[in-house]
Amino acid sequence: MSQQNPPIEPNLRLSLNDLAVLRSVICGYLAYVRRTVLPAQQPRVQLHLLDSLYQRLSGIPPNALEVQIPLYVPEIRALESALLGFAAFVRQKVPPSKDRDETLQDLERFRQQLVAMLPKE
Predict the structure, then answer these.
(1) Residue 3 within a domain
(2) What is the total count of domains within the chain?
(3) Which of 25, 74, 98, 118 has its CA 20 to 30 A from that of 9?
(4) Domain annotation covers residue 5
């Protein structure tokens, strides 16, 4: 029986500030979904992936200036969904302002960087 090496996964580069923001987005999205979506309708695999990713991000020392995190394709897709969901929540709950719009633009740029990491089909 031969063992295959798993494919090399893309690395997500994050600054200390990006890391804190990403943890907040994941935490906020998870809380929102668990509070508003019926348990039977919750995307369990996606929530598990996000929980796991949040734990990995939380384990990074706070003094790290920049980190590289390997991500699997399902994690990238789950993170993309979380970013889209979080942005929709912000649009719905936070009154329009320059700060809100700049934050949403930053989230969208980050989401596009994530999507660019996905393998071409």
Answers:
(1) no
(2) 1
(3) 25
(4) no
